[in-house]
Amino acid sequence: MSIFENVLKNEERIIFALRELYRRYGYSQYKMSKFEEYDLYAGNKDFLVSDNIITFTDTNGALMALKPDVTLSIVRSSRETAGWVQKVYYDESVYRASRGGAFKEIRQVGLECIGEIGDYDISEAVLLAGESLRCISGEWALSLSHLGIVSEALDGLKVPGEYRQRLLKCIGEKNLHELTAICREAGAEESAAERLRRLLSTYGAPEVVLPELAGLRCSPEALGQLSRICGALERQGLGGGLRLDFSVVNDMNYYNGVVFKGFVNGVPSGVLSGGQYDKLMRKMGRRSGAVGFAVYTDMLERLAGAEEEYDVDVLLLYGAEDSLDALHAALAGLRAEGHSAMAQRAVPEKLRYRRLMRLAGEGVETVESDA
Amino acid sequence: MSQMLNIALPKGRLGEKVYDMFEASGFDCPAIREGGRRLTFENQSLGLRYFWVKPSDVAIYVERGAADIGVAGKDILLEYQPEIYELLDLGLGRCSMAVAAPAQFRDNPRRTLRVATKFSNIARRHYGSLGRDIDIIHLNGSIELAPILNLSDVIVDIVETGRTLRENGLEVVETILPISARLIANKASFEFQRQGIEAIAAGLAARTEVV
């Protein structure tokens, strides 16, 4: 296996580590086609990260799409069996418009837990999100929120529906000044607005935030669930990277309960996103619940240390007079010692090599070495 | 602070006022006052690195993590909708985003309204919310010229004192929203440089109340 490890790019190594992690927790790989009927996405556009979708007409005239998302396909093909939870992971390409507007192929790894999920399944998903981040980098942060608590604080404002979307945007931006202005404009009760502001300003390590939440009259069920999840992660040695942060707000039309977002130091945007999405299940005619997350591996090539130091271990120079047999033998010898080796007549421009060697009679001699 | 905190400031008059505010809050960087052609300035002891960028680019630097925090106008944030935290309204550079038109202008709802603007997304959202059919003419400068030469019926632009409008025979028809400079932060930086960012936000917030 070690031979192949040298071939893998850093993000590929992470992807395989994640797949192994999920497999060890009993998740089975879900393999799917690159195409899906467009109708599946047309009805759930808000669930998608971007609503730009690459479409084409299939040979039978059906409008098809290159998958912009994996979760919807997994939910659609899931079966509901009483008392049973389907656990799958995936490693798939999705096709989305980037911020610049052009379509990109993005490799996405993630997992879904579908069925009669309970506290254990939800805490396991959050735990695996933490473990996933730890696989990616030593410096990671998992921000955890509970939409039940956010929703309750919003309900307390008693403002018309049109303000909720604007308020949610402010919550996602930690934008307290505009949130205050909107509450005032909507005529929300000041005590309820203050409660929402305090909720949003209360973020950080669970041991600091949880006691403060108790003073904010949050729903005991939601608070209890958050507390149990945080405890479970703490006991698994994942407490250090865990934060409670109510600015994590996924679309409330699809998500409910626990939602989370993961970051690693060195990557400027979130690399992991997920949560409980029972509302999506309802929209798709399912009775049971679901929780899952995705890791966006496209950003990981930017991680420090991701770039290889050298293009080749040994650059072997040879001349027109050197024997072909001696050249092959020298290269075979180097490779047998575990080095990558390349033969050239002259040093290629900008090639980074560990050692420069040249053929000397039947053997090789070192001209220059970085070691 | 183990890592340097990168701060993107908008080049120009507003940026200088913003820096004054950082300085007054204790986040100074004397090198910035020395002038010259340098683009980055460091205060090693405070762990701060400032740099000047085009005002409309601040949000891009922050969203992509080249800057951990920055100061950008609300107009830019609304136009580009970057994925960032908006931590504070600094109260500087107050102006408004408005619709302006020649003094004699009367909107004829039976015709598509031609709107010249630098802020296409803001204009589209504003008229979209009113259900008004518009034709956006995206310009990069001298927007006031468009209605004068009948390139457009109205313009959507930033209005500070209204003087440029008046001098070109235009007047504000409608104010879309108030604009001012905002302190923004990269979402990942906020997780890993939280203490430094919060200290700056708190320092500036105290000054904002004074301004």
Short description:
With 371 residues, chain A is of the alpha/beta class. In chain A, 38% of the residues lie in helices and 26% in strands. In chain A, the strands form three sheets. Chain A has an eight-stranded mixed beta sheet, sandwiched between helices. In chain A, strands 13-12-14-15 form a four-stranded mixed beta sheet, with helices on one face. A three-stranded antiparallel beta sheet of chain A has the order 2-4-3.
Main-sheet strand order of chain B equals 2-3-1-4-11-5
Give the N-to-C terminal Cα separation of chain B: 29 Å
Question: What is the oligomer described by this structure?
Answer: heterodimer
Spatial order of strands in the largest sheet of chain A: 1-5-6-11-10-9-7-8
Which residue ranges of chain B are poorly predicted, with pLDDT under 50 across at least 5 consecutive positions? none
Greatest chain-chain contact: A-B, 17 and 18 residues
Distance between the termini of chain A: 25 Å
- The number of E-state strands of chain B comes to 11
β content of chain B, as a range? Answer: 25-35%
Judged by helices, strands and strand pairing, the structural class of chain B is alpha/beta
The radius of gyration over CA of chain A amounts to 26 Å
The largest pleated sheet of chain A is described as: 8 strands, mixed
